[in-house]
Amino acid sequence: MAHSKLSFPVQAAVDCELCEGHIKVDWNSRTCPANLCEKCKVVHVSRTHEMESRDGHKKHQDQGNQEDRTVRNDPQLLTSPNIGALQLKDRTVKNVPLYPPTPLDVKVIKTFTAGVRGTVTEMRAISSTKVWCSHKGDTLMMLYDINGQHIHSLSLDFKIQGFVINNIGNFIVCDLSNYSIKQVTADGYVSTLCSTSPWKPWGICLNHKQQPVVCIGESLVVYSSDCQTKLQEFKHDQHGKPLFVWPHIVAMNGETSYCVADPRGYKVVTIDVEGRLRWTYSGEPGQKRFKPYNICCDSFMHVLVAETYHNKVHLLDEEGKFIMYITDNDSIQHPLGLVVSDDGYLWIGEDHVLKKVHVIKYLKHI
C-alpha cells in the first residue's frame, strides 16, 4: 500500500492528530499522513516507520523486527477518529481511517435467511453489499445482497469445499468430489486447474500475488496463479516441528502472513510468507477445547476466528493477542461462515438449521 508524502512549512500551525486539544506538532511521518507530538510519535511508529522532525534535522525509526507494515494495532491507536484517503495500486479508497478504529461497537445491522441447501458455511464478499454463500459439500453457490435478496445462483456438478474469487471475477474452487482445484467463470464454465490427490483440498485463499494458497493434508501449499506449479509447501516450522494437525481454513493477513484455523490442533496458526511460525492462539486462558472452524482478516490486520460450537467469534490483533468477542452468547447459533466486506462489516453465516446470515458492525468510525 503506497502512501503519499506530506510536508508542511515550518511556520504552519499544525496540531497533533492523536492528542485532544491543541498540542504542538514536533514530527511529520515520512510514510503516512500523520502529524504528531513527541509523546504520540513513540506510540505511532511502526517497525518500518520513519518519522522526521518538523525542522527536518532529526529522524526516528523503531529498530524492532523489520516487517512490511505501516501501523501497529496499538491500543492507544485504536481510539483515533482520523479519517483520510488511502492510495492503492489501482484505485483510491476514500474515507478510510488512518488508524485502526476502536473494535468496541458491536451491532447487528441486518439478519436474513439464506436459501442454500444445508447451512451457511462458505462466504465470499464481492462488494460492500453482496456476498456469495454456499454449504460445505454442496454443489450450489448463491449470491445475496445485504437485504437477503437472492440475486444469482451457480450450480456445479461437484461438491464445493471452499472458494475464492480472483481479480478478474472467476471462482477458484476446492472440489471435494474429485480432489482437485477448479476454475469457474461467471457464466458457469468449469475447468480443472490441478489435482490434489491423494489429499482433499480444504480451505483456500489468494495471496497478494493472486496465487492460490490451499490447505491440503497436513500442509499449506502455495500454487502459481494458474495452479500448474507448486511454489511452496509449508508443513514444519523453522525448528522442524509440525505446524498443523489439520489445516482447515486459511486467510491472508495483509501481504505478510497466512492465518490458518486448525480445529484438530485446537489452535490458530500464523506463519509468514516464507513459512516461519509467527504465533499460535489457543483461546483465552483456561478455555477448554478451543476448536476454530473458520477464519478471516480485515483491512486493519485484525484476525477474526469462528469458534462454532461455543457460539463465539474471537477478534485478535495481528500478533494474535485477544481483543474481544464479537459474539459470545446464543444470539448467533454456531457461527461458521465468515467474511469481512469492502466497507468493514462482518458477515456471519450460521451452521444451524435456520440458515441465518448476520451483518455486523464491530468497528467504530466505519
UniProtKB/TrEMBL annotation:
Protein name: Tripartite motif-containing protein 3
Disordered as annotated region, ranges: 48-76
PANTHER family: E3 UBIQUITIN-PROTEIN LIGASE NHLRC1-RELATED, PROTEIN WECH
Domain of life: Eukaryota
InterPro entries, per database record: 6-blade_b-propeller_TolB-like, TRIM-NHL_E3_ligases
Bilayer-spanning residue ranges: none
GO annotation, biological process: proteasome-mediated ubiquitin-dependent protein catabolic process; protein polyubiquitination
GO molecular function: ubiquitin protein ligase activity
